[in-house]
Task: structure prediction
Amino acid sequence: MNALSKGIRKVEVALKWDPSPAGQPPTDLDVVAATYLASDPYGDPAYVVHFDSRSPDGTIYLNRDSQDGKGFGWDEVLTVELERLDARYARVVVGAIIQQRPGHRTFVSVINPALRIREGYTVLAEDDFGGVLGATAVTFAEFVREETGTWEFHPGMKGFEDDPANFTAIMGQAHRH
Result:
C-alpha cells in the first residue's frame, strides 16, 4: 500500500446457503468474529461476536442471522468497522461454524454455500467452501493492524474438524505466520 492508502476501513462479511431438503433438519451456519489484543495477538480472543452477541463498542455486529438458509440473498451478514476499533486491538479473525444439531455436519452436507467479503462495492474475497468439505468450522479472513494504524486483509480458508464448541478458543491460531 502507498502512503496515501487508508487501508481497509469497514467490511461486510456475508454467507449464504440453500435450505435443507424437505424432511431433513435445517442447516444453520453462523458467522463468527474474534478480536485479539496487540499485547497478545495470537492468544485468547479479547471478545467474540456471533449470533447472540455484538462487540462491546458496537464496531462488530450481525446485520442478518438465518437458522435455515431460507432467506433471500445473503443469509448471514456481519459488519466489521475496523476504522473505529480501539488501538489496543491488532487482529480480527472471521470464520463460520456449522451448528451441530441434531447431528454431526460438515460443509460437504451444506447445499450451495457461498462467502463474500467486501468493502463498499469492492469484493475482497469470494469462496464456495469447496476446499474445506470435511470441516465443521472454518476461518476465512484475518484483518491485521499495521504499524501505521491501517488495516490489511489476509484471506485464507482453514478448516477445523474439532468440536465446534472449541472453535472460538482456537480460531485465532489458524493464521499464525
Observations:
- The radius of gyration is 16 Å.
- Helices lie at 164-170.
- The mean pLDDT is 90.
- Strands lie at 10-18, 29-37, 47-49, 60-64, 76-81, 89-98, 111-119, 122-127, 137-145, 151-160.
